[in-house]
Amino acid sequence: MSASESAIPKDANDSGLAAKDPAKRSRALLIVGAVFVLAALIWFLLWFFIFSTRENTDNAYIGGNQVALSSQVAGTVVAILTDDTQHVEAGQVLVKLDGTDADVRLRQAGSALAEAVRQVRQQTETASSADATIAAREVDLRKAQADLKRHLPLLAAQAESPEIVQHMRDSVAQAQAALDTAKAQAKASRASIDGVDIADNPSVLQARANFRAAWVAAQRNTIVAPVTGYVAQRSVQLGASITPGQQLMTIVPLHNLWIDANFKENQLRHIRIGQPVKITTDLYGGGVDYHGKVIGLGAGTGSVFSLLPAQNATGNWIKVVQRVPVRIALDNGELDKHPLRVGLSADVTVDISNDRGPVLAATAQQPAAETSVYDQVAAQADAQAEKIIRANLDSAAQSSN
User: Fold this and answer.
1) Exposure string (b/e) for 38-63, b if CB count within 10 Å is 16 or more?
2) 154 - beta bridge partners?
3) Among 153, 246, 340, 367, which one has the highest count of C-beta atoms within 10 angstroms of its own C-beta?
4) Does a structural domain hold residue 280?
5) Which range of residues forms the domain containing residue 120?
6) How far apart are CA 65 and CA 252, in angstroms?
7) Exposure letters 345-376 (e unless 16+ CB within 10 A, then b)
């Protein structure tokens, strides 16, 4: 063996021989090809059973009601009973205004209501007096007619002078006129009270409505929370003079939240209302999963409702893939365990394996939001007005006794 041959490594010789061996090369190619086929098969199975039945986006954000609290009357702030981040219950007093002027107007309205009741009572008594006058005039008429009837035979027998009989005829005419006048006066007296009792008289109802308005205005100097939630964006300050409609703070209920997931238009082909959704948030990471369902798809793309919508009809048009918001309802039980905040980002995965549901939402069967905290104010106003009416009616009954 020469020195040059001995200098060549044995491994190099073996690799050269393998490279020259067609069988080994074919086996290597088959192995590589099998690996690629297996990878493609695995990818196809993953796509068919998993990826094709899911639509995912991380362009999703937590949404919720943001209830702007404002004053319904003008006034000066004398107390602020809550602050940002604090929890408030529906009906809880949050802000108080100076109620001096409202109390004065309420007292005036109460006095006007009492006066209206007494005036109707007076009209009722006047009508009763007019009825008594009619009865008296009827007695006078019957007496005059009876006197005339007794003297007419005497006139025929020339036992009575014609002048006396004429005076009696005049007395009958005067009594009839007096009766007619009394009836007209009684009718006029009853024109404003007939058909209804005192409490339902139009004058009393008008005064009652004015009192109710004054009562409600006085109660509105105490501003209450319309819903249960957390206070945010408090801008009202002590001593500030506020106007009706001026926003004082915002209340955000952290219950009944939802997600607006902005899917690309080519992702909406199989998304349907009612499909289950899995959600993760950056706040809790992958350790906490939320479960919801699709409750509706937006009526337009985000660009349509933007402040400056795109003008695609112009010559410099460029095609851009649009996104449509998909509304997803969350489970309140999961929200109670892991609270979220409005505006947080989320990652949404919709299960589209069942795409036979509707695309358009049905007509709403219940209100999206409602409150009953203001109903009590009207009921209290009616109760107080009824109390004033009864007090003035009872005084009339006591005086008659």
Assistant:
1) eeeeeeeeeeeeeeeeebebebbbbb
2) none
3) 340
4) yes
5) 101-218
6) 6
7) ebbbbbebeeeeeeeeeeeeeeeeeeeeeeee
CB-side exposure of 222: number of CA atoms within 13 Å? Answer: 11
The model's pLDDT over 84-139, given as tens digits with 9 standing for 90+, comes to 999 999 999 999 999 999 999 999 999 999 998 888 787 777 767 767 777 777 88
What's the pTM value of the predicted model, to 2 decimals? 0.71
Name 63's Cβ contacts closer than 8 Å, sequence gap at least 6: 257, 258, 259, 260, 327, 342
How far is it, in rounded angstroms, from Cα 247 to Cα 68? 6
β-pair partners for 264: 323
One-letter amino acid of 192 = S
Q: How far, in Å, CA of 220 to CA of 208, rounded?
A: 18
With respect to residue 231, please indicate whether it lies within any of the assigned structural domains: no
Answer whether 335's CB lies under 8 Å from 257's CB.
Answer: yes
Query: What is the largest distance, in Å, between two alpha-carbon atoms of the chain?
Result: 194
pLDDT per position as a tens digit, 53-77: 788 999 999 999 999 999 999 999 9
User: Tokens 């006129």 belong to which residue?
Assistant: 177
SS3 letters for 151-219?
HHHHHHCCCCCHHHHHHHHHHHHHHHHHHHHHHHHHHHHHCCCCCCCCCCCHHHHHHHHHHHHHHHHHH
Q: How much is the CA Rg of the chain, to the nearest whole Å? A: 46
Domain boundary at 218, 250, 274, which? 218
Instruction: Tell me if 271 sits within 8 A of 350, measured CB to CB.
Output: yes
Q: Do 252 and 66 meet the contact criterion of CB atoms below 8 Å apart?
A: yes
For residues 212 and 273, membership in a common domain is answered with no
Q: How many CB atoms lie within 10 A of CB 335?
A: 16
